[in-house]
Amino acid sequence: MDHYLEHNGMTVHYQVMGSGSRGWLCFHGFGRRAEDFEVFRPLLGDDDRLVCINLFGHGHSAFPPDRIDWSPIQLEEWCEIVELLLESQGFDRFNLLGYSMGGRIAMMTYLGFADRVDRMLLLAPDGLKKNKMYQFASGTRLGRAIYRSIIPDPAMLFSLAKMLNRLGLLSDKLHRFVHVHLDTREKRELVYAVWLIYRRLFPDYAELAQKLNTSGTQCNMIFGTYDSIIPVRLGKRFVKRLRRPAIIHQVPVGHRLMERTTIDYIRDRGLWK
Q1: Which of 30, 95, 165, 236 lies 20 to 30 angstroms, CA to CA, from 125?
Q2: Order of strands, edge to edge, in the sheet holding 218-224?
């Protein structure tokens, strides 16, 4: 069932799956939708309820267009939205589930609510490494101007990607990734909007580690063994900061973790209960 929340001119579109009292806030990957979490339905017990949130620019979630360039969402404002969601569902304590970009949003949500989160399950989470290209393209006026220039005509970008691929500086998978996500104007505009909207929601590694070390939150990270977009080494590097264990898991797939193979792994390893 579709639900909507309005706050400060923003619209958050989300779906609820299950009717139990054990709440999960779920965040999908870039270019995906809340419906992706249907794959988790076989894991749901009578006590589970998934609140599957469409990120801004996805589904019917909308961010004020006049704010995209000059006033991205900040953690405080995001936490206000999350608090309203929790109140609407009657959750005091809750769990977090995030895939790829949604993993970064889950980690940022955790920073705001660490003392209320029982479990965090992250699938190939973005945000474990600061991407210099992303920082330049979204965090500087020059970078934003350059990106805006390729929205109508990406020929220069594709030529550069092809050259880097031939030189061995861009893997075949990342080369394909560029084309898949930027091959239409609509997709290029979505990348631009989403990058800018969420450019302030990037976890501070030291703070994240400190809160995981001192809270009772159970954290599990699942990576695709063959993922070249968000490789498992990023997770292994991060957990070295932790005194309390955050367990790293690998599934024999690439970046596409929102599928049955992952669900079977989660069930068989007891990561859901």
Answers
A1: 165
A2: 2-7, 10-17, 48-53, 22-27, 94-99, 117-123, 218-224, 246-251
